[in-house]
Design goal:
mainly beta, single chain, 14% helix, Cathepsin D, subunit A, domain 1, two-stranded antiparallel sheet, 9 strands, 134 residues, 45% strand
Length: 134
């Protein structure tokens, strides 16, 4: 089992109208998908391209148990396998690829098929996300 990579489209929510009118196009990237991660983490270079500015900070804990404080951005739209959501992201200056964590996977009702190394829609809701509201 290796890393699960997936093509994603991302844009600044304030560019939504321009994208709908075809005056602008979303950025496309190969992203690492990891249900062991919680949030979206973006390289600072992508944040700059999206013209998002930091609006807060959050404390993060890495797999090796180090802790650090990182800037966060809001107003990010992510589309994966035709499903989209808006969210916030943590900025990580030394990352080279975006990381998609559990919150977006849950919101889009996507599963990691680790046997085949790919992302798939929930088989019980292949056409659109099905969210359990309790």
């Amino acid at each position: 089992m290796g890393k699960t990579m997936q093509k994603i489209k991302i844009w600044n929510i304030f560019d939504e109208e321009k994208i709908e009118q075809g005056k602008m196009f979303p950025l496309e990237f190969e992203a690492q998908v990891d249900n062991g991660a919680v949030r979206v983490i973006l390289p600072s270079k992508i944040v700059e391209k999206l013209q998002l500015r930091p609006l807060g900070k959050t404390k993060v804990r890495y797999a090796d148990m180090r802790e650090a404080e990182r800037d966060t951005v809001h107003g990010l739209v992510i589309e994966i396998l035709g499903r989209r959501t808006d969210c916030s992201a943590i900025i990580e200056s030394n990352r080279t690829v975006p990381l998609i964590g559990q919150i977006v996977l849950e919101d889009l009702d996507l599963w990691i098929d680790s046997k085949n190394g790919k992302l798939i829609p929930n088989p019980e809701s292949p056409d659109m996300p099905l969210l359990d509201e309790i």
